[in-house]
Here is the input.
Amino acid sequence: MKLLTLNFLTCARKTCKSTAAAFPLHPKEAELEQVEMELNPLFVKNMLPRLDWEAMKTLATELGLPNLPAETPVAEELANESGEPTQTLRDLHTLLMETAIASGKLVCGNCGHEYAVKEGIANFLLPSHMV
Amino acid sequence: MEYLIRFIQMHETFRQPEIDALADLAGIQMDWVFYSEDSPFAIIRFHDSAADEATARALIARSVLSDEIYELWGSGTDYNRLHADIRRRTQTLWPQHSTRSFRFKVDSYHGSRSLAEQRQLIETFDYMSFTGPIRMSKPDNHFTIFEHYDLDTPAPRALHFGRLIAQSGRKAINKYNLKKRTYIATTSMDAELSLVTANLAHAAPGTLTYDPFMGTGSFPLACAHFGSTVFGSDLDGRSIRGTAHRNVSKNFTQYATTPLYLGALIADLTHTPLRPSRLLNAIICDPPYGVREGLKVLGSTRPALQQIVHLADGTPAHLQPGYIPPKKAYSFTRMLDDILAFSADRLVDGGRLCMWMPVAGSGVPVGCEAAAAAAPPPPPSDAPETPDTHIDKVEAEAEAEVEAEAETEAEYPIPRHPALALISICQQDFNKWSRRLLTYRRLPDNQVDETAISAYTAQRLLAEETSQLSGSDGTGKFKADDLNDFRKRYFQGFRGEPGAGT
Ligand SMILES: [Zn+2]
Here is the structure.
């Protein structure tokens, strides 16, 4: 699962939805993989305002990735004057689109439930007593 | 200048909504000068007087339900009138085309012309005095004479003449043909309607589209074809994972759109892990219904399963590897409401929801009524479910549920949400049932009626409580009728939404 997707996800339990602690989910025993992808500048630009940057920073720290800038990069930082992709754009692309959790667990900070990730696919199904 | 769209004569109710969606996406304003469901020929006019060939090209490039767009040179009810109209409209254009290579074609709808007749017909157009070479392959100008006959009549009732501007995007149907796809299932949406749905959803470069019932990924694949980044989820992890060589991911490999595929989640829409934020440009789905698929959600109606289930050795069952959570049948109409509420919370302003649904509760695929009638009652056992036994039970519950909805024989109401404007209703008729494709647009918050939103939210909470109450005594069934009443009540207070129509 790409780190971009992880930024969209919270605990699936109804009782956790409204709590701040349920987001972001915390990776545990995560095995990362890096898959090279074609750069999609327009998409990255469009996603910036939808990202929760605090959650992105937390995630980077928890995964031992290099520290992220304090603030969400803005669209103007993604291309130079001649329209070429900047290092900021390439870094964002690597982080959001090329870095993925291949396997491990995602833990809810509120209820402690662990969601398994296998072969890059996270399982958010809940047993009946958590529904 | 007016333009003629050469439609295919199929999926008629989808044709105008597709073109309207594409015009909207390309920022083109246009009027329908002539459109009839009985005709493959439609005439449009662009608002912008500077609109030209490029505008026509932009409009048609992605269209799946048309073949071509033409510059309209004339129309008439017989050949005298057609020729007069051509002179009136295009006489000034003839000199600029006079030396170009060209060809003529006759397109007779519901009629046919022998080659000799066609040649004779084409000769009646010689007053335009084109002197360029005739080329059958790649001519500069490709002119078509369109004839529309009523069935079994000797003379056409309508005639048009046009110069070809551009081909549509219809050839993508062949590329996405299910027969050539690596990974499909019996319920995979066909290529043509998947692509049409992607057009109605405004799938485009830079956008993010989500399918909460992705199955083998037909919709996400179609959206990626148009450049949208996509992801999806499904309650059934097996359908996503497939096998080592046949799975959703491999489908994206086949079409070389892997960079647009974010991946898939195993998840239930009624317990979604997607945070309620305006993340998505489009949501596109065909929620399961009928006995064949059976609509299920997480949970169980059995009291014993409302607590942690422990195995004989004392360990909790849900922490075992390979654990499969129980699922229960769920009302289809309630799911439709859930999808709309989910979409209203997560679509960006102007974002689109495209949702397929059967027209009527009895509209289940052939043979399902018989199957439902023959379904055994749910097993009475109170023993905790194990991963091995729960599947049969789920099937039985689902069948009983569908039977309850099928008994009503009633048309499903079109679901509504105060934050979603209904843009189009398209209908596909089969032999014994029909289904619809509904398209909604997320209104900006300042256009949403606050009173309607409060009333809607209150009713949703009430429905939730009612269902939990009925769930605690073990029945847990939400009958379609209950929801129909519920819907009637809360929409009586709603204002008519703009832009609704067929
Ligand atoms: Zn939780």
About this structure: Residues 31 and 162 of chain B are 18 Å apart (CA to CA). The first helix of chain B runs from residue 12 to 26.
